[in-house]
Amino acid sequence: MEKFEMAYDIKLFYLFNNLSGKSEVFDWFAVFFADYFGYFVAVLFFAILFLAPFYRDRIKVFLTVAISVVLSRLVITEIIRFFYCRPRPFMAYTVNQLAEDANCSFPSGHAAFFFALAMAIYFYNKKWGWVFFTAAVVMGIARITSGVHYPLDILAGAAIGMLSAYFVFYLTKRYENFC
Question: Which residue range or ranges hold the Phosphatidic acid phosphatase type 2/haloperoxidase domain (predicted)?
């Protein structure tokens, strides 16, 4: 990455990270949204899978989400991290570290996972898709605020997740046309 982009990324990181360390309540919320909110989002996904207007396409929605998430988080993100390992902010700089995570920072696995989930849901139900996109954005900002990711990590993870879901959905639609 260019030095200008990296400097801008670090400045934007500090803009969010400097919000932490000033209030125990704010820090608690930042850690909750960075580390634990994803579990609630996963439970919400399964709840709406059975309760929302997906009832005719439950298996298709579930498979689209599952394949999108696996492709984005466990395949593409890990391949990128194998070739390029960017140290996490708390490993490279003095930060207000609220959460901890191991391995490489770029791209964000959390963002790849939850943006893939949101995009896949969006293809089947726009309203619920926006709910999940909002949750993914909140988690991404919280992970920056907590000191475990740079903004570009989140943006790259979001792009990987959304493109993975688009690819899987496109293949699903194409396969339906052949059957």
Answer: 61-169
Cβ contacts of 86 within 8 Å, gap of 6 or more: 104, 105, 106, 150, 153
pLDDT tens-digit series, residues 55-101: 568 888 899 999 999 999 999 999 999 999 888 888 877 777 777 77
- In CATH terms, 3-178 corresponds, of 2.30.30, 1.20.144, 1.10.12, 3.30.420, to 1.20.144
Helix axis angle for 126-145 and 151-178, nearest 10°, is: 150
C-beta atoms surrounding 80 within 10 Å: 18
- DSSP assignment of 72-89: IIIIIHHHHHHH--PPPH
